[in-house]
Protein backbone atom coordinates (compact mmCIF):
# COMPACT_ATOMS: atom_id res chain seq x y z
CA UNK A 1 0.00 0.00 0.00
CA UNK A 2 1.28 3.46 -0.85
CA UNK A 3 1.88 5.55 2.25
CA UNK A 4 0.27 8.99 2.84
CA UNK A 5 3.76 10.44 2.32
CA UNK A 6 4.02 8.74 -1.05
CA UNK A 7 0.75 10.28 -2.15
CA UNK A 8 1.92 13.69 -0.93
CA UNK A 9 5.21 13.39 -2.77
CA UNK A 10 3.36 12.43 -5.94
CA UNK A 11 1.13 15.50 -5.64
CA UNK A 12 4.15 17.72 -5.10
CA UNK A 13 5.93 16.16 -8.06
CA UNK A 14 2.92 16.89 -10.27
CA UNK A 15 2.97 20.53 -9.20
CA UNK A 16 6.71 20.80 -9.80
CA UNK A 17 6.48 19.24 -13.23
CA UNK A 18 3.80 21.71 -14.24
CA UNK A 19 5.78 24.65 -12.87
CA UNK A 20 8.95 23.84 -14.80
CA UNK A 21 7.37 22.17 -17.80
CA UNK A 22 5.27 25.03 -19.06
CA UNK A 23 1.91 23.84 -17.68
CA UNK A 24 -0.66 26.61 -17.31
CA UNK A 25 -2.42 27.34 -14.02
CA UNK A 26 -5.68 26.12 -15.54
CA UNK A 27 -4.07 22.80 -16.47
CA UNK A 28 -2.59 22.46 -12.99
CA UNK A 29 -5.93 23.12 -11.35
CA UNK A 30 -7.52 20.37 -13.48
CA UNK A 31 -4.82 17.91 -12.35
CA UNK A 32 -5.08 18.35 -8.60
CA UNK A 33 -6.68 20.70 -6.12
CA UNK A 34 -6.01 21.68 -2.51
CA UNK A 35 -8.41 19.05 -1.18
CA UNK A 36 -6.68 16.30 -3.19
CA UNK A 37 -3.43 17.36 -1.51
CA UNK A 38 -4.97 17.37 1.97
CA UNK A 39 -6.43 13.91 1.34
CA UNK A 40 -3.02 12.61 0.22
CA UNK A 41 -1.59 13.99 3.46
CA UNK A 42 -4.13 12.10 5.56
CA UNK A 43 -6.17 15.19 6.53
CA UNK A 44 -9.11 15.31 4.10
CA UNK A 45 -11.32 18.33 3.60
CA UNK A 46 -14.65 18.21 5.42
CA UNK A 47 -15.76 21.55 3.95
CA UNK A 48 -14.47 23.34 0.86
CA UNK A 49 -15.83 26.70 -0.31
CA UNK A 50 -14.79 28.87 -3.24
CA UNK A 51 -16.40 31.26 -5.71
CA UNK A 52 -13.30 31.32 -7.90
CA UNK A 53 -12.31 27.72 -8.71
CA UNK A 54 -12.75 24.02 -8.01
CA UNK A 55 -10.81 22.77 -4.97
CA UNK A 56 -10.73 19.15 -6.18
CA UNK A 57 -9.19 18.13 -9.49
CA UNK A 58 -12.36 16.32 -10.57
CA UNK A 59 -14.96 18.69 -9.14
CA UNK A 60 -17.52 19.68 -11.77
CA UNK A 61 -20.44 20.92 -9.66
CA UNK A 62 -21.72 24.33 -8.59
CA UNK A 63 -19.45 26.72 -6.70
CA UNK A 64 -22.08 29.20 -5.57
CA UNK A 65 -25.59 30.47 -6.22
CA UNK A 66 -26.70 34.01 -7.13
CA UNK A 67 -30.11 35.63 -6.89
CA UNK A 68 -31.06 38.60 -9.05
CA UNK A 69 -33.16 41.45 -7.77
CA UNK A 70 -35.24 42.00 -10.92
CA UNK A 71 -37.28 38.79 -10.58
CA UNK A 72 -35.78 36.88 -7.59
CA UNK A 73 -34.63 34.11 -9.92
CA UNK A 74 -31.58 32.09 -8.81
CA UNK A 75 -28.78 30.41 -10.73
CA UNK A 76 -25.96 28.10 -9.74
CA UNK A 77 -22.54 29.16 -11.01
CA UNK A 78 -20.24 26.27 -11.82
CA UNK A 79 -16.81 25.79 -13.36
CA UNK A 80 -15.55 26.10 -16.91
CA UNK A 81 -14.35 22.50 -16.78
CA UNK A 82 -13.76 19.84 -14.14
CA UNK A 83 -11.22 21.14 -11.64
CA UNK A 84 -11.13 24.54 -13.31
CA UNK A 85 -12.01 28.19 -12.75
CA UNK A 86 -15.47 29.62 -12.14
CA UNK A 87 -17.76 30.31 -15.08
CA UNK A 88 -18.04 34.04 -14.41
CA UNK A 89 -19.59 34.62 -17.83
CA UNK A 90 -22.65 32.66 -16.70
CA UNK A 91 -23.06 35.08 -13.78
CA UNK A 92 -22.51 38.12 -15.98
CA UNK A 93 -25.16 36.95 -18.43
CA UNK A 94 -27.68 36.06 -15.72
CA UNK A 95 -27.14 39.32 -13.79
CA UNK A 96 -26.95 41.69 -16.78
CA UNK A 97 -28.85 44.90 -16.11
CA UNK A 98 -29.75 44.06 -12.53
CA UNK A 99 -28.18 43.44 -9.13
CA UNK A 100 -27.30 39.94 -7.94
CA UNK A 101 -26.51 38.65 -4.45
CA UNK A 102 -24.56 35.53 -3.45
CA UNK A 103 -27.11 33.31 -1.70
CA UNK A 104 -25.21 30.01 -1.28
CA UNK A 105 -21.55 28.99 -1.12
CA UNK A 106 -21.60 25.30 -1.98
CA UNK A 107 -19.44 22.78 -0.12
CA UNK A 108 -17.35 20.88 -2.64
CA UNK A 109 -16.44 18.10 -0.18
CA UNK A 110 -19.72 16.24 -0.68
CA UNK A 111 -20.69 16.60 3.00
CA UNK A 112 -23.31 19.24 2.36
CA UNK A 113 -21.67 21.92 4.52
CA UNK A 114 -23.00 24.77 2.42
CA UNK A 115 -22.95 28.36 3.68
CA UNK A 116 -26.10 30.48 3.52
CA UNK A 117 -27.38 33.76 4.98
CA UNK A 118 -26.38 34.03 8.64
CA UNK A 119 -29.16 34.26 11.24
CA UNK A 120 -29.13 36.73 14.15
CA UNK A 121 -27.06 36.04 17.25
CA UNK A 122 -26.11 38.11 20.24
CA UNK A 123 -25.69 40.85 17.64
CA UNK A 124 -28.44 41.20 15.04
CA UNK A 125 -27.66 41.72 11.40
CA UNK A 126 -29.09 44.61 9.37
CA UNK A 127 -31.47 42.55 7.21
CA UNK A 128 -35.13 41.91 8.15
CA UNK A 129 -35.50 39.79 11.27
CA UNK A 130 -31.93 40.51 12.34
CA UNK A 131 -30.44 38.29 9.63
CA UNK A 132 -27.20 39.34 7.94
CA UNK A 133 -26.92 40.85 4.50
CA UNK A 134 -25.85 38.81 1.49
CA UNK A 135 -22.80 39.80 -0.56
CA UNK A 136 -23.06 41.72 -3.81
CA UNK A 137 -22.09 39.18 -6.46
CA UNK A 138 -20.16 41.65 -8.63
CA UNK A 139 -18.32 43.68 -5.99
CA UNK A 140 -15.05 41.73 -6.01
CA UNK A 141 -13.91 40.97 -9.58
CA UNK A 142 -10.52 39.27 -10.05
CA UNK A 143 -8.86 36.83 -12.42
CA UNK A 144 -7.72 33.27 -11.67
CA UNK A 145 -5.40 31.68 -14.19
CA UNK A 146 -6.37 34.42 -16.62
CA UNK A 147 -10.10 33.71 -16.22
CA UNK A 148 -12.49 36.27 -14.78
CA UNK A 149 -13.97 35.35 -11.39
CA UNK A 150 -15.63 37.00 -8.41
CA UNK A 151 -14.86 36.85 -4.69
CA UNK A 152 -17.27 37.21 -1.77
CA UNK A 153 -17.19 40.89 -0.78
CA UNK A 154 -17.94 41.14 2.95
CA UNK A 155 -19.05 44.66 3.84
CA UNK A 156 -20.01 45.24 7.49
CA UNK A 157 -23.34 43.54 8.10
CA UNK A 158 -22.69 40.70 5.63
CA UNK A 159 -22.35 37.12 6.85
CA UNK A 160 -22.81 33.42 6.07
CA UNK A 161 -23.22 30.44 8.41
CA UNK A 162 -24.10 26.76 8.78
CA UNK A 163 -24.95 25.52 12.29
CA UNK A 164 -25.82 21.96 11.25
CA UNK A 165 -22.68 20.56 9.69
CA UNK A 166 -21.34 17.10 8.93
CA UNK A 167 -17.85 15.92 9.89
CA UNK A 168 -16.47 19.23 11.21
CA UNK A 169 -14.24 19.00 14.30
CA UNK A 170 -15.91 19.31 17.69
CA UNK A 171 -14.53 19.42 21.21
CA UNK A 172 -10.74 19.11 21.15
CA UNK A 173 -10.58 17.24 17.84
CA UNK A 174 -7.75 18.30 15.48
CA UNK A 175 -8.41 20.34 12.35
CA UNK A 176 -6.84 22.66 9.83
CA UNK A 177 -8.29 25.78 8.22
CA UNK A 178 -7.05 27.98 5.40
CA UNK A 179 -8.56 30.89 3.52
CA UNK A 180 -7.38 32.94 0.56
CA UNK A 181 -8.47 36.54 1.17
CA UNK A 182 -7.92 39.98 -0.27
CA UNK A 183 -4.92 41.67 1.31
CA UNK A 184 -6.12 45.27 0.88
CA UNK A 185 -9.79 44.93 1.88
CA UNK A 186 -10.05 44.83 5.67
CA UNK A 187 -10.91 47.00 8.65
CA UNK A 188 -10.11 47.21 12.36
CA UNK A 189 -13.33 45.73 13.69
CA UNK A 190 -14.71 42.32 14.61
CA UNK A 191 -14.70 39.99 12.86
CA UNK A 192 -13.84 38.90 9.34
CA UNK A 193 -13.61 35.19 10.22
CA UNK A 194 -13.73 31.89 8.37
CA UNK A 195 -13.80 28.55 10.13
CA UNK A 196 -15.23 26.54 13.02
CA UNK A 197 -17.72 28.31 15.32
CA UNK A 198 -20.34 27.74 17.98
CA UNK A 199 -23.83 26.58 17.06
CA UNK A 200 -25.53 28.90 19.56
CA UNK A 201 -24.61 32.19 17.84
CA UNK A 202 -23.63 33.50 21.29
CA UNK A 203 -20.29 34.29 22.93
CA UNK A 204 -21.15 32.26 26.01
CA UNK A 205 -17.76 30.64 26.71
CA UNK A 206 -14.12 30.68 25.61
CA UNK A 207 -12.58 27.95 23.41
CA UNK A 208 -15.78 27.23 21.45
CA UNK A 209 -14.41 28.61 18.16
CA UNK A 210 -11.38 28.13 15.94
CA UNK A 211 -11.27 30.36 12.87
CA UNK A 212 -8.94 32.32 10.65
CA UNK A 213 -9.23 36.08 11.17
CA UNK A 214 -7.77 38.74 8.85
CA UNK A 215 -7.80 42.42 9.72
CA UNK A 216 -6.38 45.12 11.99
CA UNK A 217 -8.58 44.74 15.09
CA UNK A 218 -6.59 45.50 18.28
CA UNK A 219 -9.35 45.00 20.88
CA UNK A 220 -8.02 41.66 22.12
CA UNK A 221 -4.90 40.50 20.30
CA UNK A 222 -2.62 42.20 17.81
CA UNK A 223 0.78 41.88 16.20
CA UNK A 224 3.64 44.09 15.08
CA UNK A 225 3.10 47.38 13.26
CA UNK A 226 -0.34 48.63 12.31
CA UNK A 227 -1.69 45.46 10.68
CA UNK A 228 -3.45 43.79 9.11
CA UNK A 229 -2.59 40.46 10.73
CA UNK A 230 -3.56 36.83 10.36
CA UNK A 231 -4.91 35.82 13.76
CA UNK A 232 -7.22 33.21 15.28
CA UNK A 233 -10.67 33.84 16.74
CA UNK A 234 -11.02 31.34 19.61
CA UNK A 235 -14.00 33.16 21.23
CA UNK A 236 -13.62 35.67 24.02
CA UNK A 237 -10.60 36.91 22.13
CA UNK A 238 -8.66 37.25 18.91
CA UNK A 239 -5.20 35.73 19.40
CA UNK A 240 -2.05 36.68 17.49
CA UNK A 241 -0.11 34.03 19.44
CA UNK A 242 -0.20 32.34 22.84
CA UNK A 243 -0.80 35.49 24.88
CA UNK A 244 -3.69 37.90 25.06
CA UNK A 245 -2.68 41.26 23.62
CA UNK A 246 0.56 41.57 21.66
CA UNK A 247 2.57 38.70 20.21
CA UNK A 248 5.26 38.78 17.53
CA UNK A 249 3.14 38.61 14.39
CA UNK A 250 4.09 40.61 11.29
CA UNK A 251 1.78 43.00 9.48
CA UNK A 252 0.77 41.53 6.12
CA UNK A 253 1.52 43.40 2.91
CA UNK A 254 0.36 41.08 0.12
CA UNK A 255 -2.29 41.76 -2.51
CA UNK A 256 -3.72 38.27 -1.94
CA UNK A 257 -3.14 36.42 1.33
CA UNK A 258 -3.11 32.75 2.31
CA UNK A 259 -4.16 32.58 5.97
CA UNK A 260 -3.84 29.35 7.98
CA UNK A 261 -4.93 28.35 11.49
CA UNK A 262 -4.75 24.77 12.75
CA UNK A 263 -5.21 23.14 16.13
CA UNK A 264 -4.99 19.89 18.06
CA UNK A 265 -4.97 19.10 21.82
CA UNK A 266 -2.92 21.82 23.56
CA UNK A 267 -1.14 22.72 20.32
CA UNK A 268 -1.98 25.15 17.55
CA UNK A 269 -0.37 27.29 14.88
CA UNK A 270 -0.84 30.37 12.71
CA UNK A 271 0.77 30.49 9.26
CA UNK A 272 0.48 32.96 6.38
CA UNK A 273 1.86 33.71 2.94
CA UNK A 274 1.53 35.54 -0.34
CA UNK A 275 -1.19 33.80 -2.36
CA UNK A 276 0.54 34.86 -5.58
CA UNK A 277 4.07 33.53 -4.92
CA UNK A 278 6.37 31.85 -2.41
CA UNK A 279 5.77 29.63 0.58
CA UNK A 280 4.20 29.99 4.01
CA UNK A 281 5.72 31.57 7.12
CA UNK A 282 4.97 30.18 10.56
CA UNK A 283 3.78 33.09 12.68
CA UNK A 284 3.16 31.03 15.82
CA UNK A 285 3.46 27.34 16.75
CA UNK A 286 2.99 26.32 20.36
CA UNK A 287 0.60 25.62 23.24
CA UNK A 288 -2.95 26.86 23.62
CA UNK A 289 -3.56 30.13 25.52
CA UNK A 290 -4.51 29.88 29.18
CA UNK A 291 -8.13 28.78 29.46
CA UNK A 292 -8.20 27.26 25.96
CA UNK A 293 -7.16 23.70 26.77
CA UNK A 294 -9.09 21.62 26.17
CA UNK A 295 -10.97 23.26 23.31
CA UNK A 296 -14.76 22.95 23.24
CA UNK A 297 -15.41 23.51 19.54
CA UNK A 298 -19.01 23.11 18.40
CA UNK A 299 -18.54 22.50 14.67
CA UNK A 300 -20.56 25.24 12.97
CA UNK A 301 -18.98 27.06 10.00
CA UNK A 302 -19.13 30.80 9.41
CA UNK A 303 -17.77 33.41 7.01
CA UNK A 304 -17.41 37.16 7.48
CA UNK A 305 -18.71 37.42 11.05
CA UNK A 306 -17.80 36.59 14.64
CA UNK A 307 -19.23 33.63 16.51
CA UNK A 308 -21.88 35.79 18.20
CA UNK A 309 -22.74 37.33 14.83
CA UNK A 310 -20.53 40.37 15.33
CA UNK A 311 -21.07 42.07 11.98
CA UNK A 312 -18.58 44.95 11.97
CA UNK A 313 -15.76 43.18 10.09
CA UNK A 314 -14.87 43.57 6.42
CA UNK A 315 -12.89 41.59 3.88
CA UNK A 316 -13.07 39.57 0.67
CA UNK A 317 -13.01 35.76 0.58
CA UNK A 318 -11.96 33.70 -2.43
CA UNK A 319 -11.50 30.13 -1.22
CA UNK A 320 -11.06 28.13 1.96
CA UNK A 321 -11.36 24.71 3.56
CA UNK A 322 -11.68 22.93 6.90
CA UNK A 323 -9.96 19.57 7.33
CA UNK A 324 -10.28 16.50 9.54
CA UNK A 325 -6.98 16.11 11.39
CA UNK A 326 -4.01 18.40 11.93
CA UNK A 327 -2.25 18.99 8.57
CA UNK A 328 1.52 18.78 8.39
CA UNK A 329 3.54 21.80 7.34
CA UNK A 330 4.64 19.82 4.28
CA UNK A 331 1.03 19.30 3.22
CA UNK A 332 0.30 23.00 3.68
CA UNK A 333 3.33 24.00 1.62
CA UNK A 334 2.06 21.83 -1.23
CA UNK A 335 -1.38 23.42 -0.91
CA UNK A 336 0.28 26.85 -0.98
CA UNK A 337 2.11 25.87 -4.20
CA UNK A 338 -1.27 24.93 -5.67
CA UNK A 339 -2.74 28.29 -4.65
CA UNK A 340 0.11 30.31 -6.16
CA UNK A 341 -0.07 28.25 -9.35
CA UNK A 342 -3.79 29.03 -9.64
CA UNK A 343 -2.82 32.55 -10.66
CA UNK A 344 -4.79 35.00 -8.52
CA UNK A 345 -4.61 38.54 -9.94
CA UNK A 346 -6.65 41.75 -9.86
CA UNK A 347 -8.87 42.58 -12.85
CA UNK A 348 -6.68 43.94 -15.61
CA UNK A 349 -3.57 42.74 -13.78
CA UNK A 350 -2.94 45.95 -11.79
CA UNK A 351 -2.10 46.04 -8.08
CA UNK A 352 -3.98 47.18 -6.11
CA UNK A 353 -7.51 47.71 -7.47
CA UNK A 354 -9.79 46.46 -4.71
CA UNK A 355 -10.48 47.93 -1.30
CA UNK A 356 -8.16 50.86 -1.97
CA UNK A 357 -8.09 54.41 -0.67
CA UNK A 358 -8.24 57.38 -3.06
CA UNK A 359 -5.48 59.57 -1.62
CA UNK A 360 -5.05 63.19 -2.69
CA UNK A 361 -1.51 64.11 -3.65
CA UNK A 362 -1.98 67.75 -2.68
CA UNK A 363 -3.77 67.19 0.61
CA UNK A 364 -2.47 63.84 1.84
CA UNK A 365 -6.10 63.10 2.73
CA UNK A 366 -8.47 60.45 1.42
CA UNK A 367 -11.82 60.57 -0.36
CA UNK A 368 -14.47 59.50 2.15
CA UNK A 369 -18.23 59.15 2.38
CA UNK A 370 -18.84 61.40 5.41
CA UNK A 371 -20.09 59.83 8.63
CA UNK A 372 -20.15 56.41 7.01
CA UNK A 373 -23.41 57.35 5.28
CA UNK A 374 -24.91 54.95 2.76
CA UNK A 375 -27.63 57.36 1.61
CA UNK A 376 -27.91 58.06 -2.11
CA UNK A 377 -26.82 61.60 -2.90
CA UNK A 378 -24.21 61.92 -0.14
CA UNK A 379 -21.37 64.10 -1.47
CA UNK A 380 -17.89 62.69 -0.87
CA UNK A 381 -15.16 64.78 0.73
CA UNK A 382 -11.57 64.76 1.97
CA UNK A 383 -10.85 63.23 5.38
CA UNK A 384 -7.85 62.03 7.32
CA UNK A 385 -6.88 58.64 5.90
CA UNK A 386 -7.88 55.72 8.11
CA UNK A 387 -8.94 52.11 7.75
CA UNK A 388 -12.71 52.47 7.44
CA UNK A 389 -15.09 51.14 4.83
CA UNK A 390 -16.22 54.66 3.93
CA UNK A 391 -12.73 55.14 2.42
CA UNK A 392 -12.41 51.72 0.75
CA UNK A 393 -13.09 51.81 -2.97
CA UNK A 394 -13.02 49.04 -5.56
CA UNK A 395 -12.09 49.97 -9.14
CA UNK A 396 -13.90 47.40 -11.26
CA UNK A 397 -13.20 46.05 -14.71
CA UNK A 398 -16.05 48.17 -16.08
CA UNK A 399 -14.54 51.32 -14.53
CA UNK A 400 -16.84 51.83 -11.58
CA UNK A 401 -15.50 53.06 -8.23
CA UNK A 402 -17.55 51.11 -5.71
CA UNK A 403 -17.87 51.62 -1.96
CA UNK A 404 -19.70 49.36 0.53
CA UNK A 405 -20.03 46.84 -2.31
CA UNK A 406 -23.29 48.36 -3.60
CA UNK A 407 -22.74 52.12 -4.01
CA UNK A 408 -20.83 53.85 -6.78
CA UNK A 409 -19.03 57.16 -7.19
CA UNK A 410 -21.45 59.21 -9.27
CA UNK A 411 -21.63 62.60 -11.04
CA UNK A 412 -24.90 63.86 -9.60
CA UNK A 413 -27.76 64.17 -12.04
CA UNK A 414 -25.47 62.91 -14.83
CA UNK A 415 -23.99 66.39 -14.71
CA UNK A 416 -21.22 67.48 -17.04
CA UNK A 417 -20.90 71.10 -15.89
CA UNK A 418 -18.01 72.58 -13.95
CA UNK A 419 -18.64 72.14 -10.25
CA UNK A 420 -20.91 69.09 -10.54
CA UNK A 421 -21.04 67.41 -7.14
CA UNK A 422 -19.50 63.95 -6.84
CA UNK A 423 -21.75 61.72 -4.74
CA UNK A 424 -22.52 58.07 -4.04
CA UNK A 425 -25.52 56.36 -5.61
CA UNK A 426 -26.77 52.83 -6.17
CA UNK A 427 -24.58 51.28 -8.87
CA UNK A 428 -26.29 51.21 -12.27
CA UNK A 429 -23.35 51.19 -14.69
CA UNK A 430 -24.23 54.31 -16.66
CA UNK A 431 -21.52 56.62 -17.96
CA UNK A 432 -21.78 59.08 -15.05
CA UNK A 433 -20.57 56.24 -12.81
CA UNK A 434 -17.61 55.31 -14.99
CA UNK A 435 -14.14 56.71 -14.32
CA UNK A 436 -10.77 56.52 -16.02
CA UNK A 437 -7.86 56.22 -13.59
CA UNK A 438 -5.01 57.78 -15.52
CA UNK A 439 -1.31 56.98 -15.26
CA UNK A 440 -0.79 60.74 -14.72
CA UNK A 441 -2.70 60.64 -11.41
CA UNK A 442 -6.02 62.00 -12.66
CA UNK A 443 -9.43 60.38 -12.27
CA UNK A 444 -11.64 61.46 -15.15
CA UNK A 445 -15.39 61.06 -15.61
CA UNK A 446 -16.13 59.04 -18.74
CA UNK A 447 -19.33 60.97 -19.47
CA UNK A 448 -18.09 64.49 -18.68
CA UNK A 449 -14.39 64.32 -19.46
CA UNK A 450 -13.88 66.39 -16.29
CA UNK A 451 -11.47 65.58 -13.48
CA UNK A 452 -12.11 64.59 -9.89
CA UNK A 453 -11.23 67.78 -8.01
CA UNK A 454 -10.86 68.92 -4.40
CA UNK A 455 -13.04 72.02 -4.52
CA UNK A 456 -11.16 75.31 -4.58
CA UNK A 457 -7.79 73.59 -4.27
CA UNK A 458 -8.74 72.79 -0.67
CA UNK A 459 -6.65 70.46 1.45
CA UNK A 460 -8.58 70.52 4.73
CA UNK A 461 -10.71 67.70 6.03
CA UNK A 462 -14.26 68.30 4.84
CA UNK A 463 -13.27 69.74 1.45
CA UNK A 464 -15.96 68.64 -1.01
CA UNK A 465 -15.16 66.68 -4.17
CA UNK A 466 -16.48 68.02 -7.47
CA UNK A 467 -15.88 67.77 -11.21
CA UNK A 468 -13.72 70.43 -12.85
CA UNK A 469 -11.80 70.83 -16.13
CA UNK A 470 -8.52 68.96 -15.93
CA UNK A 471 -5.56 71.29 -15.30
CA UNK A 472 -2.91 69.05 -13.71
CA UNK A 473 -3.01 70.76 -10.32
CA UNK A 474 -2.21 68.92 -7.10
CA UNK A 475 -5.88 68.98 -6.08
CA UNK A 476 -6.61 66.78 -9.12
CA UNK A 477 -3.84 64.25 -8.45
CA UNK A 478 -4.88 60.99 -6.82
CA UNK A 479 -3.26 57.71 -5.85
CA UNK A 480 -5.10 54.41 -5.41
CA UNK A 481 -3.36 52.70 -2.52
CA UNK A 482 -3.87 49.76 -0.20
Summed up, what is this model?
With 482 residues, the protein is mostly beta strands.
Describe the structure.
The radius of gyration is 22 Å and the shape is globular. The chain has 2 domains: 4-346, Sandwich (Jelly Rolls); 357-481, Trefoil (Acidic Fibroblast Growth Factor, subunit A). It has 482 residues and is mainly β. Residues 1-30 have low confidence and may be disordered. Helices cover 11% and strands 32% of the residues. Strands 1, 9, 11, 18, 19, 20 and 22 form a 7-stranded antiparallel β-sheet that branches. It has a 7-stranded antiparallel β-sheet with strand order 5-10-21-12-13-15-16, with no helix packed on it. A hairpin with a 4-residue loop joins strand 15 (229-233) and strand 16 (238-239). It is built from 5 helices and 35 strands.
In total, how many domains does the architecture comprise? 2
Low-pLDDT stretches are: 1-30
Helix percentage range: 10-25%
Give average pLDDT, whole number: 90
* Overall CATH class of the largest domain: Mainly Beta
Q: Could you say which overall geometry the principal axes of the C-alpha atoms support?
A: globular
What's the CATH topology label of the largest domain?
Jelly Rolls
Q: What is the CATH architecture annotation of the largest domain?
A: Sandwich
In percent, how much strand structure appears in the residues?
Answer: 25-35%
Distance between the termini: 50 Å
The structure class reads mainly beta
Largest sheet: 7 strands, antiparallel
Number of strands: 35
Kindly provide the radius of gyration, computed on alpha-carbon positions and rounded to a whole number of angstroms. 22 Å
Count up the helices.
Answer: 5
Amino acid sequence: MTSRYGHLAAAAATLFALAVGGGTPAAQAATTGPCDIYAAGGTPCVAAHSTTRALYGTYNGPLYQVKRSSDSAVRDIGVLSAGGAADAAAQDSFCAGTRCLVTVLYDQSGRGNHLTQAPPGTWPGPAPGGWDNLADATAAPITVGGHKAYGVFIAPGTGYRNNKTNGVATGDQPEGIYAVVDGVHYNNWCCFDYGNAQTTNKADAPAIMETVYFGADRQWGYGDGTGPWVMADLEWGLFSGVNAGHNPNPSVNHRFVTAVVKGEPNHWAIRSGNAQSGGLSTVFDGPRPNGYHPMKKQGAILLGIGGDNSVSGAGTFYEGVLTAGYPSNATEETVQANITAAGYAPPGGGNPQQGVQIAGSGSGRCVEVPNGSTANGTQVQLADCRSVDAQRWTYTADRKLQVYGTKCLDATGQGTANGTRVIIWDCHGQANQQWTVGSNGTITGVQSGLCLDADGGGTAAGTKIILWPCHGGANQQWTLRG
